[in-house]
């Protein structure tokens, strides 16, 4: 069994210690020496994984993929259960015979052929009918040779190369499944098996060499490739000659041993259970990873981190749900005309298919039952596999969970004021765009906001955007970027990160996004000295169902003509009243107020006034309307609050309120202190060292204080009573050891108490129950690839090789479901 995720070095004593534990033939004396050395150094290596004998290539009898006596018996039972996945598969297979013309054509990339094939394979396993086997063979041969219609002969070797290899996920894996399951059936003749092996070799040798993202774990292309390569390598083991040996070694050592081990490791792209390309692409991808790993593990390929990833993905799914909705935060490219996405059954099936802990599986099964989710088409195989070993559904006791969660792989914070259905929920991200995956526009500092069912602040970014102006992210003018890229954030940043992200017992949420590196151009350092966005969420009332969000944007751009562009986008009709924009959406009153810069408010110059504009429906690849970095199109109707603030030193403060009533909290900003007052409640946010005075809080209504100090750790603030006031003294004590803000409360006697942190929560269910927290802060260690994404660079700014890559791969793909709903879309890939 090969454990490939963590290969920590072991001490060397002239003889590799791993030789001792591998059991290789050595002289007895060497074994004794190794054993003694191992015992002597037990403490040094106890926490380091041991690399075992490499997993051997499968060469035994068929079937080798998924199907065993337990699965067969379970499916025979499921066949008798009305509306089970197996029963629906049987019905679909019968339909292919009773209405063959309805199933003759494939609408997208082989997905329909494979869905029909899988249905008939399941039916054959459950019933043992030769009619089902015969129907399966029809679609098996169609995958081998055809393209869009059974018998058209237009597929074959080039079938998988469609869309730079997108079809690798839909054609080879299910053809390999049929090859394996029907291997010894009379209908699978020796000639047909040989023909299939020829196709497998053609398809996989091409993708292994030239397929898109064939080595980038955590991307949707790689997920499809991992599924295909694993299934084909297992099915063809011992029967495919030299290439088959090479493919198995590649699957074991590279696809799982390196690519997925990296993606699943600490700070890997999948760490925390989120998906950087977004949740249009994620559901099928995570299900493919879970299913292919189930097969790989059965053949002794073991990767550390899969179990933790599946559990974290479930926890993330729950935290990403906004308010009373069962829809989740989208992230990345999304085509539908809605702000959030429904939870996909595939996401939850992945938890059930893979080696997730029992508690996560039971809760995932509970969510499927509660939402009455079920699979269709290609998904039937995944549901049938999950139902074969059903987890007892359990209700997720989310009211006992912490209310914030951080996904490190994508640097996204999910937080809410309460688990009550009418609470306020926010998601915010602060990540470098990176070059190793697509479908995520540069949008560090972006955030969305929901109260109950009302999505008051949304990210309406259209599919294929490469601009930060399509979201709620802050945007700063950089002279380093090419004109066509301005003013957007760029994709070459490496050190963009959350400096901190916390939540406290009073429900306060606070984060800081440092995104100056988003203006790096290829290998050239950013010309923006400072770019930060702070978000502070202050809940109101004992139920915490209303909240104010303080948005503090700072930048140093160098020149006055390098401004900051801010946008807050809502599906509602915002109306501007001076410095205040307001609207009503469902049960929520939503307002946006500008508190700073004071001079802009005072001078009221036209070029710095806020304005409200309707969101422009459109697509960013329409070069007649938009430049790459200037696109501000939307996939949703609505309006946006927008303002332009000149450089070189910028500080902008806005307060966004979401509440049940129309009464606004009082909001002021003076001498570095933001004061919010709603009835008897007060909140203060201090942005500099010094002293400030406050009114004495009402009994039973402690005031909330948040201290945000740049570059220094404040001493514990001193609060004293002075007549009818409380005086707060914030003093700096030097370089920050813990850069996170200090949050405390002040009572009616001017007594202070620290407001302890309650989040972000741990990404595992045991950690959630134990109240384990995840520290957020520091610069991520991973780096993006350099030299990509410059489509129109002039001399010295790009390379002909980069341009060739971009021209050859100038497509971004919707997933199959999205494609059928919205058509196949084209746009320039970074």
3D structure, described in words:
By secondary structure, the chain is α+β, with helices and mostly antiparallel strands. The protein folds into five domains: 2-45, no CATH class; 69-396, Glycosyltransferase (Alpha/alpha barrel), CATH 1.50.10.100; 409-626 and 634-663 and 760-770, Distorted Sandwich (Beta-galactosidase, Chain A, domain 5), CATH 2.70.98; 665-755, no CATH class; 800-830, no CATH class. It contains 20 helices and 33 strands. Strands 16-17-18-23-14-13-12-11-33 form a nine-stranded antiparallel beta sheet. Strands 24-25-26-28-31-32 form a six-stranded mixed beta sheet, with no helix packed on it. Strand 13 and strand 14 form a beta hairpin. The longest helix is centred in the N-terminal third of the chain and has 24 residues, at 241-264. The protein is elongated, with a radius of gyration of 29 Å. The model is unreliable at 4-51 and 781-830 (pLDDT under 50).
């Amino acid at each position: 069994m090969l454990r490939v995720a963590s290969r920590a070095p072991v001490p060397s004593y002239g003889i590799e210690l791993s030789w001792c534990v591998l059991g290789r033939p050595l002289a007895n004396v060497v074994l004794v020496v190794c054993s003694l050395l191992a015992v002597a150094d037990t403490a040094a290596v106890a926490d380091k994984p041991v690399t075992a004998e490499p997993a051997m290539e499968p060469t035994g009898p068929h079937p080798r993929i998924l199907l065993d006596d337990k699965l067969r018996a379970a499916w025979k039972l499921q066949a008798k259960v009305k509306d089970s996945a197996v029963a629906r598969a049987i019905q679909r297979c019968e339909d292919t015979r009773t209405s063959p013309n309805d199933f003759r054509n494939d609408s997208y990339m082989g997905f329909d052929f494979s869905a029909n094939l899988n249905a008939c394979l399941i039916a054959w396993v459950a019933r043992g009918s030769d009619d089902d086997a015969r129907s399966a063979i029809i679609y098996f041969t169609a995958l081998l040779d055809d393209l869009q219609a059974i018998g058209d002969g237009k597929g074959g070797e080039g079938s998988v190369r469609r869309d730079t290899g997108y079809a690798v996920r839909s054609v080879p894996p299910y053809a390999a499944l049929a090859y394996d399951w029907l291997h010894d059936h009379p209908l699978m003749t020796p000639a047909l098996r040989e023909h299939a092996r020829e196709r497998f070799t053609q398809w996989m040798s091409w993708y292994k060499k030239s397929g898109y993202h064939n080595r980038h774990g955590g991307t949707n292309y790689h997920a499809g490739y991992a599924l295909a390569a694993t299934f084909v390598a297992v099915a063809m083991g011992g029967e495919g000659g030299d290439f088959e040996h090479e493919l198995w070694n590649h699957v074991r050592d590279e696809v799982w041993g390196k690519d997925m081990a990296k993606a699943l490791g600490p700070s890997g792209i999948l760490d925390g259970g989120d998906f950087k390309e977004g949740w249009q692409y994620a559901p099928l991808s995570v299900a493919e990873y879970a299913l292919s790993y189930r097969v790989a593990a059965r053949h002794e390929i073991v990767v550390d981190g899969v179990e933790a990833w599946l559990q974290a993905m479930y926890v993330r799914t729950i935290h990403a749900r906004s308010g009373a909705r069962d829809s989740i935060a989208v992230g990345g490219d999304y085509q539908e005309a809605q702000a959030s996405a429904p939870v996909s059954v595939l996401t939850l099936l992945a938890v059930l298919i893979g080696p997730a802990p029992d508690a996560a599986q039971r809760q995932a099964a509970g969510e499927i039952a509660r939402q009455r989710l079920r699979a269709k088409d290609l998904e039937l195989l995944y549901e049938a596999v999950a139902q074969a070993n059903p987890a007892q559904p359990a209700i997720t006791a989310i009211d006992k969970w912490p209310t914030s969660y951080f996904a490190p792989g994508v640097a996204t914070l999910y937080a809410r004021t309460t688990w009550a259905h009418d609470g306020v929920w926010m998601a915010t991200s602060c990540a470098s765009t990176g070059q190793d995956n697509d479908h995520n526009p540069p949008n560090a500092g972006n955030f969305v906001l929901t109260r109950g069912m009302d999505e008051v602040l949304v990210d309406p970014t259209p599919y294929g955007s490469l601009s930060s102006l399509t979201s709620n992210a802050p945007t700063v003018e950089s002279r380093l970027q090419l004109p066509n890229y301005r003013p957007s954030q760029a994709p070459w940043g490496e050190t963009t990160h959350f400096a901190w992200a916390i939540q406290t017992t009073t429900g306060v949420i606070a984060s800081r996004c440092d995104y100056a590196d988003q203006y790096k151009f290829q290998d050239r350092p950013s010309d923006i000295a400072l770019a930060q966005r702070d978000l502070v969420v202050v809940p109101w009332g004992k139920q915490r169902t209303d909240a104010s969000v303080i948005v503090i944007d700072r930048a140093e751009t160098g020149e006055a003509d390098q401004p900051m562009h801010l946008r807050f986008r809502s599906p509602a009709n915002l109306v501007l009243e001076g410095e205040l924009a307001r609207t009503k959406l469902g049960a929520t009153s939503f307002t946006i107020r500008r508190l700073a810069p004071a001079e802009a408010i005072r001078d009221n110059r036209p070029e710095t006034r806020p304005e409200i504009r309707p969101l422009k429906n459109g697509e960013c690849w329409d070069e007649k309307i938009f430049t790459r970095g200037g696109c501000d199109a939307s996939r949703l109707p609505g309006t946006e609050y927008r303002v332009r603030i000149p450089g070189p030193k910028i500080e902008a403060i806005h307060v966004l309120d979401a509440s049940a009533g129309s009464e606004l909290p009082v909001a002021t900003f003076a001498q570095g202190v933001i004061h919010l007052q709603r009835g008897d409640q007060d909140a203060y946010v201090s942005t500099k060292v010094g002293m400030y005075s406050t009114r004495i809080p009402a009994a039973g209504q402690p005031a909330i204080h948040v201290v945000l100090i740049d570059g220094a750790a404040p001493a514990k603030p001193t609060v004293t009573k002075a007549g009818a006031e409380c005086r707060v003294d914030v003093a700096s004590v030097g370089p920050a050891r813990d850069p996170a803000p200090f949050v405390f409360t002040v009572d009616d006697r001017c007594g202070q108490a620290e407001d302890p942190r309650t989040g972000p929560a741990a990404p595992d269910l045991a950690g959630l129950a134990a109240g384990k927290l995840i520290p957020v802060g520091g610069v991520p260690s991973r780096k993006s690839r350099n030299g990509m994404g410059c489509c129109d660079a002039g001399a010295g700014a790009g390379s002909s090789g980069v341009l060739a890559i971009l021209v050859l791969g100038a497509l971004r793909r919707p997933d199959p479901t999205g494609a059928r709903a919205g058509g196949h879309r084209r746009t320039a890939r970074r």
